[in-house]
Amino acid sequence: MSLTDSGSILTFVIVSFCLALILIMRRDSIPAPFKRYLALLALVMVTMSFVLIVISFYRMR
Predict the structure, then answer these.
(1) Of the candidates 34, 6, 10, which has an alpha carbon nearest to the alpha carbon of residue 22?
(2) DSSP code for 30
(3) Rounded CA separation 41/23 (Å)
């Protein structure tokens, strides 16, 4: 996977935001031991998505 491949970046962004949305919407039904780890994973993925979006906009210039 290349970071310059816009399809891969778009897929990663969509998946990371969907994971975060699912965790927010279904937070009551997620077992307690998994909540912290899934939240950390979603936070890291969303942060990476924002970084990739900024990099993509910077390279478009």
Answers:
(1) 34
(2) S
(3) 11
